Backbone:
């Protein structure tokens, strides 16, 4: 558990085993250039911190000789529109990468709703996507309650999507259990931002909370473009006996503004959410009401992992800004290195520049990949 300016973060189970790790690089004169991209909301602090992790991995790889003699060129694409992530912008970015045959894969996206839109575009082209932050389970798991299904996104094509974090069907229940058993909250209000991520994680929280015997006072939804005043929603929660608020959503959808407005109506109660509120932007939105905000994280806290300490120290020398390092920077670093490792194996198999399908096939074979956060195995669905 880590605490930052009143924000308490619970780290949920991840599909990695902690271990030291690294990557290998090629040597000799460059054989040419291979591009990898990212699609992230770099207009946000969290999105830029993720891009920094990818850039750092690429810089290290090239300094060590590149990938089997090839220089890796990294290009960061921004999927923000009007200050928030946009699935349409993400699709446009993927199309740009697909139009350039030097791009053999990408790190991202950051948001699950963007992944939902991008996978159908990238899968037919065998274009590898590896996300450091997507958590909606329906992207990979065909489970009850999903409004869409992974097989429909891929439309009969081989899987092209992987992620290095766990899913909301772990995050939501983890916080529900903590709220009920540790904080002693038996009645709660739930608010989601109507996004794929927000609806999904709020639903998994609600299901677990009720299964423990808890009562949901009300479950409300909002849309960013339509809502700036949450006081009536919050008063509805409070008057229905809620002793806390759980929010499903992200800071770029203004999900933490209700925290500030809780103080405005004189309601002192815990404010909980998933990794979408595990950000300095959320703390800023809370504006004077920062204490007692609780968040889960879908990835291990890299600052607590021995195997990541040297990488983090080296990163901070190269990226020294106060917000350059974030909760998913090292996940992005590991994702980029996993992608480059798959590219390296594909180069060997092709005895030269590989195809996107050769890279995808090698990514699908990834097992026992040693990152700085841990050792990664992926199942057939990409988890």
Residues:
């Amino acid at each position: 558990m880590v605490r930052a300016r009143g924000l308490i973060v619970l780290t949920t189970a991840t599909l990695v085993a902690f271990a030291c790790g690294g990557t290998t690089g090629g040597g000799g004169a460059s054989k040419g250039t291979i591009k990898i991209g990212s699609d992230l909301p770099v207009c946000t602090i969290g999105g830029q911190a993720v891009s920094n992790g990818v850039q750092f991995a690429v810089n290290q790889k090239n300094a060590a000789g590149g990938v089997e003699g090839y220089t890796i060129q990294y290009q960061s694409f921004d999927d923000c529109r009007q200050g928030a992530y946009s699935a349409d912008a993400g699709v446009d970015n993927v199309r740009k990468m697909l139009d350039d045959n030097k791009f053999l894969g990408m790190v991202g996206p950051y948001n699950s709703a963007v992944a939902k839109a991008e996978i159908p575009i990238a899968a037919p082209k065998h274009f590898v996507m590896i996300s450091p932050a997507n958590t909606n389970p329906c992207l990979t798991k065909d489970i009850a309650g999903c409004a869409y299904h992974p097989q429909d996104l891929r439309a009969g094509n081989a899987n092209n999507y992987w992620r290095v974090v766990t899913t909301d069907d772990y995050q939501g229940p983890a916080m529900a259990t903590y709220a009920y058993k540790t904080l002693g909250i038996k009645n709660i209000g739930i608010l989601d931002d109507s996004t794929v991520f927000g609806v999904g994680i709020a639903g998994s929280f609600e299901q677990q909370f009720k299964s423990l015997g808890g009562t949901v006072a009300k479950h409300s939804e909002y849309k960013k473009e339509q809502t700036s005043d949450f006081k009536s929603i919050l008063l509805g929660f409070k008057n229905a006996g809620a002793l806390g608020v759980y929010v499903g959503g992200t800071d770029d959808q203004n999900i933490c503004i209700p925290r500030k407005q809780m103080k405005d109506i004189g309601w002192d109660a815990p404010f909980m959410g998933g990794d979408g509120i595990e950000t300095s932007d959320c703390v800023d939105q809370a504006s004077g009401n920062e204490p007692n905000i609780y968040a889960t994280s879908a990835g291990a806290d890299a600052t607590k992992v021995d195997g990541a300490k040297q990488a983090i120290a080296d990163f901070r020398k190269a990226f020294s800004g106060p917000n350059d390092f974030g909760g998913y920077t090292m996940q992005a670093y590991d994702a980029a290195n996993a992608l480059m490792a798959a590219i390296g194996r594909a180069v060997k198999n092709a005895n030269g520049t590989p195809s996107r399908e050769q890279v995808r096939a090698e990514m699908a074979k990834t097992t026992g990949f040693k990152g700085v956060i841990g050792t990664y195995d992926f199942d057939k669905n990409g988890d």
Notes: The CA atoms of residues 146 and 273 lie 20 Å apart. DSSP finds twelve helices and 17 strands in the chain. The domain at 168-297 is CATH 3.40.50.2300 (Rossmann fold). The chain has two domains: 23-167+304-371, 168-297.
